[in-house]
Automatic annotation (TrEMBL):
The keyword Calcium does not apply. Gene3D superfamilies: MFS general substrate transporter like domains. It holds the Pfam family MFS_1. It comes from the Bacteria. This is MFS transporter. One of its GO terms (molecular function) is transmembrane transporter activity. The chain crosses the membrane at residues 14-34, 46-65, 77-98, 140-158, 170-190, 220-243, 249-272, 284-302, 308-327, 373-393. InterPro entries: MFS, MFS_trans_sf, Proton-linked_MCT. The lineage of its organism: Bacteria, Pseudomonadati, Pseudomonadota, Alphaproteobacteria, Hyphomicrobiales. The keyword Transmembrane applies. Keywords: Membrane, Transmembrane, Transmembrane helix. PANTHER family: BLL3089 PROTEIN (PTHR11360:SF308), MONOCARBOXYLATE TRANSPORTER (PTHR11360).
Length: 402
């Protein structure tokens, strides 16, 4: 009973709240455009590229705002930032659904960009770091474990809504969920009390640095570059993967079946990482994950597309991405410490989000200009470059345990 009371009344409540809201936020803010854009642009007489430009704008706005949002969470807590951000996102959804002139459409996406900056993984990680200090990695893993189901929930829910209420009704339903479910949970259910600095060393499953590094210079730049390369791979490939598999000879149904393996592999890898927490350094996890991505790209590029190869690629790519998300939250915490963590992770996220915004168009243009094989080789080279960045990072010396 004491464990249940602690879960409901103590800071651990943040894990339950954020695990649930991350599924909703990712399922509403990130995953729907691939399904909603075709009927939206057809209804308004726009090209698909013009419609997707709104989504790219949202990612750019998110990148611009991320350090500021992280700094606000450091000072005031997640409840002060994440709840208003969800309401702003709801307003953006309403503008997209009801605002006919195209300027309202882009204003709506700009507001959604603000919601992304204040409601996705980075602000959730910053909130957990403020509550749990340097021992927050376990809580970060739990939240990302739940967030891995966002595509499992988001895509089927979006498909169902499109069939029954159309794209406008879909965005209005999303607005209602953000305003009446996500915002109240973030505003009233997230704990207010920041973690005490005493005792965090003993609670941390990883060696605590003697002196955290300053978030600047070579280590910071290498970390930001490595995660930006990961964003290039993730955004560019996932937005074009199914089409590339079909062009490689798989049927549309088979390509969808293979692509569906990405989510479960991602969740399984996060579960394994959770089970090994305390025995594996986040830096080695990041090195291994992005190297696995490179191997997956090499296999698909040089062996060729078949059901087995494509399935192995999606499983390896999903597993690697699953733990890379954890590394993006845990590694900066271990290297730079919990002090000012929200702003630090926001600064790391900024170039990654800029790259994520442009990657789908860059990769699509590369496919048209060159070939699918060339794009896969580029993905392999980007993974190798990311691995080199992680290998060049030297973590700070750890405190000796007695």
């Amino acid at each position: 009973m004491s464990a249940v009371r602690r879960l409901l009344a103590g800071p651990e409540r943040a894990v339950v709240v954020l695990a649930f809201t991350q599924i909703l936020c990712w399922g509403i803010l990130i995953y729907p455009p691939v399904l909603t854009m075709p009927p939206l642009t057809a209804d308004r007489g726009w090209t698909l590229a013009f419609g997707m430009a709104g989504f790219s704008l949202a990612l750019v706005i998110s990148g611009i705002m991320s350090p500021m949002v992280g700094g606000l969470i450091d000072r005031h807590g997640g409840h002060v930032v994440m709840a208003p951000g969800a309401l702003i996102g709801a307003l953006g959804m309403v503008l997209i659904a009801l605002g006919e002139p195209w300027p309202f459409y882009f204003i709506g996406w700009a507001l959604i960009g603000a919601a992304m900056a204040s409601n996705l993984y980075d602000p959730a990680f910053a909130t957990l770091a403020r509550l749990f200090g340097s021992s927050a990695r376990r809580q970060i893993i739990l939240v990302t474990f739940a967030g891995g189901f966002a595509s499992t929930v988001g895509w089927p829910a979006t498909h169902l809504l499109l069939q029954h209420v159309g794209w406008r009704g879909t965005y209005l339903v999303f607005a209602a969920v953000l305003a009446f479910v996500v915002a109240p949970l973030h505003g009233f259910a997230l704990p207010r009390t920041a973690a005490r600095t005493e005792g965090t060393v003993g609670a941390n499953p990883h060696p605590v640095p003697q002196q955290p590094l300053r978030p600047e210079g070579r280590p910071f730049l290498l970390l930001a570059m490595a995660f930006a390369l990961h964003a290039l791979i993730l955004s560019g490939v996932t937005s074009n993967l199914l089409a590339m598999l079909e062009r490689g000879g798989l049927s549309a149904a088979t390509a969808v079946t293979v692509g569906a393996m990405f989510g479960p592999a991602q969740v399984a890898a996060r579960l394994l990482d959770f089970m090994l927490a305390g025995r594996t350094h986040p830096l080695w996890i990041a090195r291994g994950a992005i190297a696995l991505m490179g191997a997956a790209f090499a296999m698909l590029a040089f062996v060729g597309v078949s059901f087995i190869v494509a399935a192995l690629f999606c499983i390896a790519f999903g597993a690697a991405n699953g733990v890379m998300t954890i590394a993006r939250g845990g590694l900066p915490l271990l290297m730079f410490g919990p002090e000012g963590y929200g702003r630090v992770i926001g600064r790391i996220a900024r170039p990654a989000l800029f790259v994520q915004a442009s990657a789908p168009f860059v990769v699509a243009a590369a496919v048209e200009r060159f070939s699918d094989a060339a794009v896969l080789e580029i993905g392999m080279l980007a993974a190798i470059a990311g691995t080199i960045c992680f290998l060049l990072i030297k973590p700070p010396p750890a405190v000796e345990r007695r």
